[in-house]
Amino acid sequence: MATGSGAAAAAADAEEKESGSRMITLTSNEGKAFVVTEASARQSATIRSMVDDGGCVDKGFPLPNVDSKTLARVIQYCDEHGNKEAHTVDERAALAKFDKDFIAELDADKAFLYDVTMAANYLHIQGLFALTTQCIADTIKGKTPEEIRTAFGIEYDLTAQDEEEIKEEDTHA
Amino acid sequence: MDLPSPPLQPQQAPVPTTAGSSMPARRAHMEDGICPVNKRRRLALSPCAEVYNSKRIRSQWVDFQSLPEDILSRIMSKLTLKQAVQMSMVSSVFRRAWIFHPDLLFGTEELFGTSDRQERVLSTNGFIDTINFILRKHSGLGVSDFMLSDYMYLNPNAYPPKSSIKYNFLDVFQMPGFTQPPLKFINLRHLTMRITFGSAKRFGKNAVLQLAYLLEAAPLLVDLHLDMTCADICEDPPARDVIIHRPYYNLKRACMTGFNGNGGQIALVRFILRNAVKLEKMTIVPKRRRTGKMMGEYELSLRMIRKKIVPKDKNGVLGIL
Fold it and tell me: Which residue ranges does the record assign to the SKP1 component dimerisation domain (chain A) (predicted)?
């Protein structure tokens, strides 16, 4: 578990001892409160830095950019990665399996996948952000432009000028 | 004082526009080369988003294309360069999304998706054009890996006339004469390059030494690997005052394979030894080591290293394989 650095380190260390029991409240933009362990919340670099800066842990953190459904899913990820150990091979394998199932489920609902990606970016949850962006990239891989448009429901909106340029580029690539 | 929790700023409401801005305006913006990656772009919500919204309070990110640019460019960075460039044909949003791609790996497989020898031969000219094209369009920002792997020139008989290769190769780095390359790869740290030079007559005797300007084009370069095939072994050294010396503080490891002792290579190695002040290792691999007929060339290379290069190795970084 990463702790704060510099001046905050000593205080953080002391707090860290009870952090296992310390709970943090995250509030979605719908006003719904989610109570999570500090270890779970610290998966988010955004929240971690606010906690380490002596932020108002007691009052909780309102997250005006995240709705309840998305936040619940993000917390599911944070709980798994924050509350569980990943020291042994077995533990790591279990975590990898969790990630795999987690992203497979998200992949089935693209709109929700984007919401979670946005939230992971906003909350700076590195592992989750890498997971979701990789998933989107994997959808693109090996597809023609036409297939990509279909896969993502993108409308063809290139202008005649674009097409002209593409024709010219095509002779190169 | 106990303030309410630090604000996590609410996102601004999406500005409903048809396509962010008019195409010419956006293009002008993109092409000035300083398009900020994290500039957020929001598009009008599609009808399906409204249906979605009725069930959920906030869900404006239902459209792949309306993801902010920093997220899109993260996704692009996970694609191969070829695939990323292909994305430019998908829609207007992606027309220039690839130009911040971090890896410029110019191998035949990366670009053509094939390693088939026959196809390579057919597309040699296209290959060079493609590299030129990509370098021209690429922002130059954020490139961390650059590899020019170019096996196609290895058999001189099978490929198009050398003159076009020479012209195009020098074109790639825009170094006719000894002007400095306009293109800067400010984040480039690792460069692998396989190059073939034909006869000195065609390429000019400065051609090899010109590679020294890679250090100028990529000032933060740490690793440089040049895999060279030089046909002409008796090339004269370039004139002494043809290149400007100045220190480079980032290059740590340099490797030259295919060394055959020609004047240009020697000048280039000496240039690196002299100017890369933080160099930790300079490896030279002479061409065709101890194989039958080429024994003579190998011995000559070693002799040239001992005579011309070892005396310049003041910091003891040189290694000969």
Answer: 126-171
What domain count does chain A have? 1
Instruction: Specify if A100 maps to a domain.
Output: yes
CB contacts, 8 Å: A67 with chain B: 56-59
Contacts of B54 (CB under 8 A, 6+ apart): none
Q: pTM, whole model, 2 decimals? A: 0.55
Question: Which residues in chain B touch residue A27, judged by CB atoms under 8 angstroms apart?
Answer: none
Span B100-153, pLDDT tens digits: 666 666 654 544 444 444 444 444 555 555 665 666 666 555 555 555 543 333
Q: Please report the ipTM that was assigned to this predicted complex.
A: 0.78
Q: Is A164 contained in some domain?
A: no
**Domain annotation covers residue A105:** yes
Q: What is the pLDDT of residues B268-290, one digit of tens each?
A: 888 899 888 889 989 888 876 54
Alpha-carbon separation of residue B307 from A56, B90, B303 (angstroms):
71, 57, 6
Which residues constitute the domain of residue A142?
8-157
Q: Do B57 and A29 touch (CB under 8 A)?
A: yes
For B60, the closest chain A residue by CA position comes to A115
Q: Please state whether beta strands B253-259 and A61-62 pair in parallel, antiparallel, or not at all (unpaired).
A: unpaired
